[in-house]
Queue: 2 jobs
Job 1
Amino acid sequence: NLNVAPLVVVAAAVLVFSGTATLAFVGVTDAGGTLATAFAASLLVAARFGLLGIPLSQRFKGRPWKERALVAFPLLDAAVAMCFRESTSAAGRRSYIRTARVSYSSWIAGVTLGVLLGSLVPDPKALGMDVAFPALLLATAGGVARQSSDLAVTGLIAAGIALATTPFTPAGLPVLLAVLASTMAFRTSSREAGAT
């Protein structure tokens, strides 16, 4: 329903590899937002990967720059978590790479199957698939909120901003404002935590 060519969808999955950024992009464009607004929302959501890269860099310290650049691409929560479950840097690197490979190949396969088989579903809303994106975003937010009460409060504030601005702003802008507010709150709390 987004009027995006199937090849573009698969190419985006191959080149971007971020479910949350993709969901933000689709959510904004599906609500009628502009591509610029959708891109900005995706970029802000994906900014958290920079923070994940900081501790990961310690596990890849001293490795060739090409290797470090290559492992930065599939940066995702699960791979970083698996890396730090291991007691040594070498074991952590192997675990990270293994998890990233499985996640990336599964992501590409899932997106490709969705593109190929999606046209077989005549009315996704009749099957309740119109709630898939909000449900996935809610599940992602719930997982993050369980990690910290500060993150839970930030999420509730962001949701309030989105709900409050929806009636009088163009489609997609409420999500962008909520993501921007969340990012600012997260940066502020990260600075405060670093100062203590």
Job 2
Amino acid sequence: FTVAILVNNQLGVVNRVTSMFRRRQFNIHSLTVSETHSTEYSRITIQSEGDDVVKQQLINQLYKLPDVSSVKELDQQYSVTRELMLIKMRNDPENRGEIKSAIEAFEGKILDYTKETLTIQMVGDLQKIDNFVNLMKDYEILEICRTGVVSSLFRLCSYQRSYLLDKGIRLLSCVPHIYLLNIYKNTPDRRTQDIV
């Protein structure tokens, strides 16, 4: 699961948040920090693991920290997520064509090209990055550098999302001002599905 933490932009606030993870033995998969639209606040995006109980304990503990303004869980279905990866590959003439074809298929970019190495940039969601890494394991990977989640923003405002979930409506797709909803209607003889 991924949580976005809005904190006061104060010295040592990141250390206090990560120290809480260490004390409570929560594992951190990735952590990114940056200023928001306001210089008074920073946004910490953390990927961790655990069931609903662990997740709720984590959120409760975060709210106890004095510099934490808000904590939100970012559901992958209702948020836009991106990660940046740089991967350095052995530039083997026998495999060069196959690697370049994979880069093109995954919409990546070659940032640096030498006789010995290829440095590739890949941007996308977690699944895309993992799939590309798994594909490159068939060749010789020299180095990998991943940022973790650098952007994870809600596609709906919180009250819209909560209203839909309370009504039992599942969001299928969303673009500005257009929502594709999955609405089930129970009838005496069958269960029908309307797409709005």
